Amino acid sequence: MALKRFIAASLAVMLLAAAASIAAGGGTGADPVATLGYIEKKVIPQFNAKLDAAVSSAEPELAAIRDEALRAINGLDTSNVQINSSGLDRQIEYEAYMRLMDNGFMLTAKSPVTVRLAAGERLIVAEGGEMRLVRGAATLAGERAAEIVNVTSAALNYASLAMSTGTRYVVTDGERLAGAETASGAEILVTGNYQVLPAVRPRHTDAAFALRTLGVMKGTGNGFVLGRSATRLEALIMFLRLLGEEDEALVYTGECPFDDLPVWAGGEPPKYVGYAYSKGYTKGVSASCFDPDSPATEEMYMTFILRALGYSEDAGDFDWADAPSAAERLGVITGFEHDSLSRQSFIRDSMAYVSWRALSAKCKNGTVLAEKLMDAGTFTERQYAAAGDGGVRLLG
Protein backbone atom coordinates (compact mmCIF):
# COMPACT_ATOMS: atom_id res chain seq x y z
CA MET A 1 0.00 0.00 0.00
CA ALA A 2 2.81 2.43 0.84
CA LEU A 3 4.43 1.77 -2.56
CA LYS A 4 1.11 2.36 -4.31
CA ARG A 5 0.67 5.69 -2.52
CA PHE A 6 4.21 6.69 -3.50
CA ILE A 7 3.57 5.84 -7.15
CA ALA A 8 0.28 7.72 -7.10
CA ALA A 9 1.89 10.77 -5.52
CA SER A 10 4.69 10.69 -8.11
CA LEU A 11 2.11 10.43 -10.86
CA ALA A 12 0.26 13.47 -9.55
CA VAL A 13 3.49 15.51 -9.45
CA MET A 14 4.36 14.50 -13.01
CA LEU A 15 0.85 15.35 -14.17
CA LEU A 16 1.21 18.86 -12.86
CA ALA A 17 4.77 19.37 -14.07
CA ALA A 18 3.94 18.06 -17.54
CA ALA A 19 0.90 20.29 -17.88
CA ALA A 20 2.81 23.39 -16.82
CA SER A 21 5.75 22.74 -19.18
CA ILE A 22 3.64 21.87 -22.22
CA ALA A 23 0.88 24.43 -22.23
CA ALA A 24 2.95 27.58 -21.88
CA GLY A 25 3.56 27.84 -25.63
CA GLY A 26 0.49 28.48 -27.80
CA GLY A 27 -0.51 31.89 -29.09
CA THR A 28 1.46 35.07 -29.73
CA GLY A 29 1.36 38.64 -28.51
CA ALA A 30 -0.79 39.50 -31.51
CA ASP A 31 -2.96 36.42 -31.18
CA PRO A 32 -2.88 35.38 -27.49
CA VAL A 33 -5.32 32.50 -27.88
CA ALA A 34 -4.66 28.78 -27.74
CA THR A 35 -6.71 27.60 -30.72
CA LEU A 36 -8.53 24.30 -31.01
CA GLY A 37 -5.90 23.12 -33.50
CA TYR A 38 -3.10 23.96 -31.10
CA ILE A 39 -4.79 22.05 -28.29
CA GLU A 40 -5.45 19.02 -30.51
CA LYS A 41 -2.09 18.90 -32.35
CA LYS A 42 0.34 20.21 -29.78
CA VAL A 43 -0.91 20.25 -26.19
CA ILE A 44 -2.80 16.96 -25.94
CA PRO A 45 -0.26 14.74 -27.82
CA GLN A 46 2.70 16.02 -25.78
CA PHE A 47 0.70 15.78 -22.58
CA ASN A 48 -0.25 12.20 -23.48
CA ALA A 49 3.40 11.32 -24.05
CA LYS A 50 4.45 12.71 -20.69
CA LEU A 51 1.67 10.85 -18.94
CA ASP A 52 2.43 7.60 -20.74
CA ALA A 53 5.99 7.79 -19.44
CA ALA A 54 4.77 8.63 -15.96
CA VAL A 55 2.51 5.60 -15.65
CA SER A 56 4.35 3.03 -17.76
CA SER A 57 5.12 0.99 -14.65
CA ALA A 58 2.10 1.95 -12.59
CA GLU A 59 -0.56 -0.49 -11.51
CA PRO A 60 -3.68 -0.77 -13.72
CA GLU A 61 -5.90 1.19 -11.37
CA LEU A 62 -3.48 4.13 -11.42
CA ALA A 63 -3.43 4.02 -15.21
CA ALA A 64 -7.23 4.14 -15.11
CA ILE A 65 -7.06 7.27 -12.97
CA ARG A 66 -4.66 8.74 -15.52
CA ASP A 67 -7.12 7.96 -18.31
CA GLU A 68 -9.90 9.71 -16.43
CA ALA A 69 -7.73 12.81 -16.10
CA LEU A 70 -7.00 12.71 -19.83
CA ARG A 71 -10.67 12.51 -20.68
CA ALA A 72 -11.24 15.69 -18.70
CA ILE A 73 -8.39 17.42 -20.52
CA ASN A 74 -9.57 16.20 -23.90
CA GLY A 75 -12.95 17.63 -22.98
CA LEU A 76 -11.46 21.08 -23.43
CA ASP A 77 -11.67 20.64 -27.19
CA THR A 78 -15.46 20.18 -27.02
CA SER A 79 -15.94 23.70 -25.66
CA ASN A 80 -16.69 26.60 -27.99
CA VAL A 81 -14.97 28.93 -25.55
CA GLN A 82 -11.51 30.18 -26.48
CA ILE A 83 -8.86 29.86 -23.78
CA ASN A 84 -6.16 32.47 -23.36
CA SER A 85 -2.79 30.73 -23.70
CA SER A 86 -1.38 32.38 -20.57
CA GLY A 87 -3.98 30.59 -18.48
CA LEU A 88 -4.11 27.31 -20.39
CA ASP A 89 -1.29 25.69 -18.42
CA ARG A 90 -2.96 26.50 -15.10
CA GLN A 91 -6.34 25.27 -16.30
CA ILE A 92 -4.93 21.96 -17.59
CA GLU A 93 -3.03 21.52 -14.33
CA TYR A 94 -6.19 22.18 -12.34
CA GLU A 95 -8.35 19.87 -14.49
CA ALA A 96 -5.87 17.02 -14.22
CA TYR A 97 -5.42 17.41 -10.48
CA MET A 98 -9.13 17.70 -9.76
CA ARG A 99 -9.84 14.66 -11.92
CA LEU A 100 -7.47 12.65 -9.75
CA MET A 101 -9.22 13.92 -6.63
CA ASP A 102 -12.68 13.23 -8.08
CA ASN A 103 -11.63 9.66 -8.78
CA GLY A 104 -10.68 9.04 -5.18
CA PHE A 105 -6.93 9.66 -5.08
CA MET A 106 -5.91 10.14 -1.44
CA LEU A 107 -2.76 10.41 0.61
CA THR A 108 -2.41 8.25 3.72
CA ALA A 109 -1.07 9.40 7.09
CA LYS A 110 -0.71 6.47 9.51
CA SER A 111 0.56 8.91 12.10
CA PRO A 112 -0.24 12.65 12.31
CA VAL A 113 1.20 14.81 9.54
CA THR A 114 1.06 18.59 9.25
CA VAL A 115 -0.95 19.83 6.28
CA ARG A 116 -0.44 23.48 5.41
CA LEU A 117 -3.44 25.02 3.70
CA ALA A 118 -3.04 28.27 1.78
CA ALA A 119 -5.91 30.75 1.55
CA GLY A 120 -8.81 29.23 -0.34
CA GLU A 121 -7.59 25.65 -0.11
CA ARG A 122 -9.70 22.82 1.28
CA LEU A 123 -8.91 19.58 3.09
CA ILE A 124 -11.09 16.48 2.61
CA VAL A 125 -10.70 13.67 5.15
CA ALA A 126 -12.07 10.14 4.72
CA GLU A 127 -14.24 8.38 7.27
CA GLY A 128 -12.29 7.61 10.44
CA GLY A 129 -9.72 10.33 9.74
CA GLU A 130 -8.80 12.93 12.34
CA MET A 131 -8.08 16.68 12.11
CA ARG A 132 -6.60 19.06 14.66
CA LEU A 133 -6.07 22.78 13.97
CA VAL A 134 -2.56 23.79 15.00
CA ARG A 135 -2.17 27.31 13.63
CA GLY A 136 -4.25 29.86 11.75
CA ALA A 137 -8.01 29.87 11.24
CA ALA A 138 -10.18 27.24 9.57
CA THR A 139 -13.78 26.12 9.44
CA LEU A 140 -15.28 22.68 9.10
CA ALA A 141 -16.16 22.15 5.45
CA GLY A 142 -17.90 19.80 3.08
CA GLU A 143 -21.55 18.83 2.87
CA ARG A 144 -23.78 20.44 5.48
CA ALA A 145 -25.19 17.10 6.65
CA ALA A 146 -21.79 15.40 6.98
CA GLU A 147 -21.06 14.36 10.56
CA ILE A 148 -17.83 15.36 12.30
CA VAL A 149 -17.36 14.50 15.95
CA ASN A 150 -15.57 16.88 18.29
CA VAL A 151 -13.74 14.26 20.36
CA THR A 152 -12.74 16.79 23.01
CA SER A 153 -16.33 17.69 23.90
CA ALA A 154 -18.09 14.60 22.44
CA ALA A 155 -20.29 16.97 20.39
CA LEU A 156 -21.53 16.32 16.86
CA ASN A 157 -20.37 19.11 14.54
CA TYR A 158 -21.31 20.10 10.99
CA ALA A 159 -19.84 22.17 8.18
CA SER A 160 -19.40 25.96 8.49
CA LEU A 161 -18.51 25.87 12.20
CA ALA A 162 -15.18 27.44 13.17
CA MET A 163 -12.51 24.96 14.27
CA SER A 164 -11.00 25.42 17.72
CA THR A 165 -7.21 25.24 18.01
CA GLY A 166 -6.05 21.99 19.58
CA THR A 167 -9.44 20.29 19.37
CA ARG A 168 -9.62 16.80 17.84
CA TYR A 169 -12.22 16.32 15.10
CA VAL A 170 -12.99 12.87 13.69
CA VAL A 171 -14.95 12.37 10.47
CA THR A 172 -17.57 9.70 11.17
CA ASP A 173 -19.54 9.99 7.91
CA GLY A 174 -18.63 7.64 5.07
CA GLU A 175 -21.40 8.83 2.73
CA ARG A 176 -20.74 12.57 2.58
CA LEU A 177 -17.62 14.66 2.06
CA ALA A 178 -16.19 16.42 5.10
CA GLY A 179 -13.06 18.28 6.04
CA ALA A 180 -11.80 21.82 6.62
CA GLU A 181 -11.09 25.00 4.67
CA THR A 182 -9.34 28.29 5.32
CA ALA A 183 -9.68 31.82 4.03
CA SER A 184 -6.36 33.06 5.38
CA GLY A 185 -4.10 30.02 5.81
CA ALA A 186 -3.87 27.28 8.41
CA GLU A 187 -1.85 24.29 9.65
CA ILE A 188 -3.81 21.15 10.46
CA LEU A 189 -2.57 17.86 11.88
CA VAL A 190 -4.18 15.03 9.89
CA THR A 191 -4.35 11.28 10.44
CA GLY A 192 -5.92 8.86 7.96
CA ASN A 193 -6.74 9.21 4.26
CA TYR A 194 -7.00 12.76 2.99
CA GLN A 195 -6.97 15.10 -0.01
CA VAL A 196 -5.72 18.68 -0.33
CA LEU A 197 -7.69 20.68 -2.88
CA PRO A 198 -6.41 23.89 -4.49
CA ALA A 199 -8.33 27.16 -4.44
CA VAL A 200 -11.37 26.67 -6.64
CA ARG A 201 -11.19 27.61 -10.35
CA PRO A 202 -14.04 27.77 -12.89
CA ARG A 203 -14.54 24.59 -14.94
CA HIS A 204 -17.93 25.18 -16.58
CA THR A 205 -17.71 28.31 -18.69
CA ASP A 206 -19.41 26.34 -21.48
CA ALA A 207 -22.48 25.79 -19.29
CA ALA A 208 -22.63 29.50 -18.48
CA PHE A 209 -22.56 30.43 -22.18
CA ALA A 210 -25.27 27.88 -22.94
CA LEU A 211 -27.46 29.30 -20.17
CA ARG A 212 -26.88 32.84 -21.43
CA THR A 213 -28.19 31.76 -24.83
CA LEU A 214 -31.42 30.78 -23.07
CA GLY A 215 -31.62 33.91 -20.93
CA VAL A 216 -31.22 31.90 -17.73
CA MET A 217 -27.78 33.22 -16.75
CA LYS A 218 -27.11 36.82 -17.72
CA GLY A 219 -23.85 37.54 -15.93
CA THR A 220 -22.88 40.76 -14.16
CA GLY A 221 -21.40 44.06 -15.24
CA ASN A 222 -18.03 42.29 -15.07
CA GLY A 223 -19.03 39.18 -17.03
CA PHE A 224 -19.90 35.80 -15.60
CA VAL A 225 -17.38 36.09 -12.69
CA LEU A 226 -17.63 32.32 -12.29
CA GLY A 227 -14.80 32.15 -9.79
CA ARG A 228 -16.53 33.90 -6.92
CA SER A 229 -19.23 32.68 -4.54
CA ALA A 230 -22.81 32.87 -5.72
CA THR A 231 -24.86 35.17 -3.48
CA ARG A 232 -28.24 34.45 -1.95
CA LEU A 233 -29.85 37.03 -4.24
CA GLU A 234 -28.21 35.57 -7.37
CA ALA A 235 -29.31 32.07 -6.41
CA LEU A 236 -32.89 33.28 -5.95
CA ILE A 237 -32.92 35.04 -9.34
CA MET A 238 -31.61 31.92 -11.09
CA PHE A 239 -34.30 29.88 -9.33
CA LEU A 240 -37.06 32.21 -10.58
CA ARG A 241 -35.71 31.91 -14.12
CA LEU A 242 -35.68 28.12 -13.88
CA LEU A 243 -39.29 28.30 -12.69
CA GLY A 244 -40.13 30.42 -15.72
CA GLU A 245 -41.45 33.13 -13.39
CA GLU A 246 -38.95 35.97 -13.84
CA ASP A 247 -41.41 38.07 -15.87
CA GLU A 248 -44.03 37.74 -13.14
CA ALA A 249 -41.45 38.77 -10.53
CA LEU A 250 -40.43 41.88 -12.48
CA VAL A 251 -43.99 43.22 -12.54
CA TYR A 252 -44.59 42.47 -8.85
CA THR A 253 -45.97 45.51 -7.02
CA GLY A 254 -46.64 44.02 -3.59
CA GLU A 255 -44.72 44.61 -0.41
CA CYS A 256 -41.23 43.33 0.38
CA PRO A 257 -40.48 42.94 4.09
CA PHE A 258 -36.69 43.24 3.79
CA ASP A 259 -34.84 46.56 3.96
CA ASP A 260 -31.29 45.38 3.18
CA LEU A 261 -31.63 44.76 -0.57
CA PRO A 262 -29.27 46.49 -3.04
CA VAL A 263 -30.45 49.43 -5.14
CA TRP A 264 -30.45 48.72 -8.88
CA ALA A 265 -31.47 51.20 -11.55
CA GLY A 266 -34.55 49.16 -12.43
CA GLY A 267 -35.48 48.42 -8.82
CA GLU A 268 -35.35 44.66 -9.44
CA PRO A 269 -34.14 43.23 -6.08
CA PRO A 270 -37.27 44.13 -4.04
CA LYS A 271 -39.41 42.80 -6.89
CA TYR A 272 -37.53 39.49 -7.10
CA VAL A 273 -37.37 38.95 -3.36
CA GLY A 274 -40.82 40.33 -2.58
CA TYR A 275 -42.40 38.11 -5.25
CA ALA A 276 -40.52 35.01 -4.05
CA TYR A 277 -41.43 35.76 -0.44
CA SER A 278 -45.10 36.22 -1.33
CA LYS A 279 -45.09 32.83 -3.08
CA GLY A 280 -43.41 31.11 -0.11
CA TYR A 281 -40.29 30.33 -2.13
CA THR A 282 -37.82 31.95 0.24
CA LYS A 283 -37.39 33.47 3.69
CA GLY A 284 -35.05 36.05 5.14
CA VAL A 285 -32.49 35.59 7.89
CA SER A 286 -34.72 37.76 10.10
CA ALA A 287 -38.01 39.64 9.85
CA SER A 288 -36.34 42.60 8.10
CA CYS A 289 -33.13 41.18 6.61
CA PHE A 290 -32.69 38.98 3.55
CA ASP A 291 -28.85 39.08 3.64
CA PRO A 292 -28.62 39.24 -0.17
CA ASP A 293 -24.82 39.31 -0.50
CA SER A 294 -24.02 36.34 1.74
CA PRO A 295 -22.72 33.27 -0.10
CA ALA A 296 -25.30 30.75 -1.26
CA THR A 297 -24.45 27.20 -0.23
CA GLU A 298 -24.70 24.10 -2.37
CA GLU A 299 -27.52 22.91 -0.11
CA MET A 300 -29.44 26.14 -0.62
CA TYR A 301 -29.17 26.08 -4.40
CA MET A 302 -29.93 22.37 -4.68
CA THR A 303 -33.03 23.07 -2.59
CA PHE A 304 -34.07 25.71 -5.14
CA ILE A 305 -33.42 23.26 -7.97
CA LEU A 306 -35.53 20.55 -6.38
CA ARG A 307 -38.34 23.02 -5.75
CA ALA A 308 -38.18 24.11 -9.41
CA LEU A 309 -38.63 20.43 -10.29
CA GLY A 310 -41.76 20.23 -8.16
CA TYR A 311 -40.30 18.51 -5.09
CA SER A 312 -41.12 19.77 -1.61
CA GLU A 313 -39.66 19.53 1.88
CA ASP A 314 -43.18 19.76 3.30
CA ALA A 315 -44.17 16.68 1.30
CA GLY A 316 -41.18 14.78 2.66
CA ASP A 317 -39.39 14.58 -0.72
CA PHE A 318 -36.09 15.82 0.74
CA ASP A 319 -34.47 17.77 3.55
CA TRP A 320 -32.65 21.01 2.70
CA ALA A 321 -29.51 20.06 4.68
CA ASP A 322 -29.13 16.95 2.55
CA ALA A 323 -30.40 18.41 -0.73
CA PRO A 324 -27.31 17.39 -2.81
CA SER A 325 -27.79 13.74 -1.83
CA ALA A 326 -31.50 14.04 -2.62
CA ALA A 327 -30.65 15.50 -6.03
CA GLU A 328 -28.55 12.42 -6.71
CA ARG A 329 -31.27 10.08 -5.46
CA LEU A 330 -33.89 11.80 -7.63
CA GLY A 331 -31.76 11.65 -10.77
CA VAL A 332 -30.94 15.34 -11.11
CA ILE A 333 -27.19 14.71 -10.87
CA THR A 334 -25.05 11.57 -10.81
CA GLY A 335 -23.09 10.30 -7.84
CA PHE A 336 -19.87 11.40 -9.52
CA GLU A 337 -21.25 14.90 -10.02
CA HIS A 338 -22.49 14.99 -6.44
CA ASP A 339 -19.02 14.22 -5.09
CA SER A 340 -17.23 16.55 -7.51
CA LEU A 341 -19.49 19.51 -6.75
CA SER A 342 -19.41 18.91 -2.99
CA ARG A 343 -15.64 18.57 -2.96
CA GLN A 344 -15.07 22.32 -3.25
CA SER A 345 -16.83 25.50 -2.20
CA PHE A 346 -19.96 26.51 -4.10
CA ILE A 347 -19.26 29.27 -6.63
CA ARG A 348 -21.09 30.78 -9.61
CA ASP A 349 -19.35 28.22 -11.82
CA SER A 350 -21.02 25.42 -9.83
CA MET A 351 -24.35 27.24 -10.01
CA ALA A 352 -24.07 27.38 -13.81
CA TYR A 353 -23.31 23.67 -14.07
CA VAL A 354 -26.12 22.58 -11.75
CA SER A 355 -28.59 24.84 -13.57
CA TRP A 356 -27.68 23.37 -16.95
CA ARG A 357 -28.02 19.82 -15.63
CA ALA A 358 -31.39 20.67 -14.09
CA LEU A 359 -32.81 21.55 -17.51
CA SER A 360 -32.56 17.91 -18.62
CA ALA A 361 -33.86 16.52 -15.31
CA LYS A 362 -37.38 15.20 -14.84
CA CYS A 363 -39.82 17.08 -12.65
CA LYS A 364 -41.76 15.23 -9.99
CA ASN A 365 -44.69 14.90 -12.43
CA GLY A 366 -42.45 13.30 -15.08
CA THR A 367 -42.04 16.34 -17.34
CA VAL A 368 -38.51 17.38 -18.25
CA LEU A 369 -37.78 20.87 -16.88
CA ALA A 370 -36.64 22.21 -20.27
CA GLU A 371 -39.93 21.09 -21.82
CA LYS A 372 -41.84 22.84 -19.02
CA LEU A 373 -39.94 26.07 -19.73
CA MET A 374 -40.56 25.73 -23.47
CA ASP A 375 -44.29 25.38 -22.80
CA ALA A 376 -44.10 28.51 -20.63
CA GLY A 377 -42.41 30.43 -23.45
CA THR A 378 -39.13 30.97 -21.59
CA PHE A 379 -37.22 29.71 -24.63
CA THR A 380 -37.94 27.66 -27.74
CA GLU A 381 -36.98 24.11 -28.65
CA ARG A 382 -34.66 25.49 -31.32
CA GLN A 383 -32.94 27.79 -28.82
CA TYR A 384 -32.47 24.91 -26.38
CA ALA A 385 -30.94 22.72 -29.10
CA ALA A 386 -28.66 25.55 -30.20
CA ALA A 387 -27.52 26.18 -26.62
CA GLY A 388 -26.25 22.60 -26.38
CA ASP A 389 -24.67 22.51 -29.82
CA GLY A 390 -21.38 23.83 -28.46
CA GLY A 391 -21.00 20.66 -26.38
CA VAL A 392 -21.38 21.39 -22.66
CA ARG A 393 -18.89 19.07 -20.99
CA LEU A 394 -20.36 16.99 -18.19
CA LEU A 395 -18.54 15.67 -15.15
CA GLY A 396 -17.96 11.96 -15.03
The structure class reads: alpha+beta
- Give the total of domains: 3
Q: Kindly report the average pLDDT value.
A: 83
Order of helices and strands: HEHHEHEEEEEEEEEHHHHHHHHHH
Q: Note the main sheet.
A: 9 strands, antiparallel
Give the proportion of residues in helices: 40-55%
Q: For the record, give the distance between the C-alpha atoms at the N and C termini, rounded to a whole number.
A: 26 Å
In terms of per-residue confidence, which ranges show pLDDT below 50 for 5 or more consecutive residues? 1-36, 76-81
What does this structure look like?
It is a single chain. The protein has 396 residues and is an alpha+beta fold. It has three domains: 2-102, no CATH class; 107-197, Jelly Rolls, CATH 2.60.120.1030; 205-388, no CATH class. It is 41% helix and 14% strand. It has 14 helices and eleven strands. Strands 3, 4, 5, 6, 7, 8, 9, 10 and 11 form a nine-stranded antiparallel β-sheet that branches. Strand 7 (148-150) and strand 8 (155-157) form a beta hairpin. Helix 5 (205-213) packs across helix 12. The longest helix is centred in the N-terminal third of the chain and has 21 residues, at 2-22. The protein is globular and about 60 Å long.
